[in-house]
Amino acid sequence: MSVNYVTRGYCVPLYPDCLQRIMLAKTFGCVRLVFNHFLDVQKNNLINQGHIYTKNEISHMLTLMKKDGQFSFLKEVDSVALQSSCENLNWAFMKFFNEHKGFPRFKKKGYYSTYTAKNNNNCIRTGNNCIRLPKIGWVKTKLYQKIEGHIQRVTVIDHGDGNYSLSICATDVPVETLPSTGKRIGIDVGISELLTLSNGDIYDNKRFYASTLDKLIVQQQKLSRMIKGSNNYERQRRKVHKLHKKIRNQRTDYYHKLSKQLIEDYDVIAVETLDIKSMMNGKVSNLNLSDASWSRFLYMLKYKAEWYGKRFIRINQYEPTSQKCHVCGYINKGVKELSIREWECRQCGAKHNRDINAAINIIKAANIATL
Ligand SMILES: [Zn+2]
């Protein structure tokens, strides 16, 4: 066994006291103001000049803005947080221009919001169940595990329901690699089941939060019947928000456990690269697909493989893994139809479960690719 040094995130709750809550609210307010102000500036420039200002131009404008008496209160909060807010805006524009994502939107008060603080000159430190944040001071937290390595930056999250949490990004975190098992596995990531393994194991998607999902549907219907902006509406919105959060947490938890288990059990894990966009446009229901959050799960598998000294391989999506009989190699074009779950090979007579056959082809392709 050896040790890898990795970059990793930690998520902890924050329990600010009264004064700290006020200071946090101020910081979130200023971050939002800066974001919205420059979004307006960029929007106007785009309309009038046909381009947006560069990152440096915006950064310079921010410095001038802080000197303006009207905005002098901006000096009271963490200056790095304000800079990051401008960086986030720039990033949102880059996504809009380069990845055809939606146009950046104005931030609203009272919703999920974040700000980033960087660990310049060791201004962020951890203590005994507390963490020191720039301009806020020592805030109570619950450190479920020791924060190792070097803290690079933190993101303070206001969940919009009175709760706060902190996402910590640390570099040079030591991780012990896992012992080799000599086993390899192919994984078909699917719609009806989350994962089908080439050994026939199936992991389904919703069983872990199906009951919360049912509750959410009921509460969401209630919300849709209320008058927007009323007190009842607001109360119900928070309820729905809380359920969303619960589902998110349950899913993340499940994904973490499942990915760790697979990394422990196998040395090589092969999956098929999914063309999610084209599937979204196809017949597959959008709800199921986003619910599966494949890409996030695959990302976990990928970085955990790196951490623990295992291999994660993605197979080209144009490989006909579903259509090919893994016994004789015959290509059955009829299997393209997603509704076909079982089929029999016309050439060798082998009986196939669609997903298990695909998973076996995936690990076969990975074996060829890694010869
Ligand atoms: Zn066959």
Index terms:
371 residues; alpha+beta; Nucleotidyltransferase, domain 5; seven-stranded antiparallel beta sheet; five-stranded mixed beta sheet; globular; binds zinc ion
Strand order of the largest sheet: 2-6-7-1-5-4-3
Order of helices and strands: EHHHEEEEEEEEEHHEHHHEEEH
The structural domain count equals 2
Principal-axes geometry comes out as: globular
Number of helices: 9
Describe this structure in words.
The protein has 371 residues and is α+β, with helices and mostly antiparallel strands. The protein has two domains: 3-176, no CATH class; 177-209 and 252-371, Nucleotidyltransferase, domain 5, CATH 3.30.420. Helices cover 43% and strands 21% of the residues. The strands form three sheets. Strands 2-6-7-1-5-4-3 form a seven-stranded antiparallel β-sheet. Strands 10-9-8-11-12 form a five-stranded mixed β-sheet. Helix 2 packs antiparallel against helix 3 (79-98) and helix 4 (210-224) runs antiparallel to helix 5 (231-265). The longest helix has 35 residues, at 231-265. The model is unreliable at 283-289 (pLDDT under 50). Zinc ion is lined by residues 325, 327-328, 330, 345, 347-348, 350. Zinc ion binds at residues 325, 327-328, 330, 345, 347-348, 350.
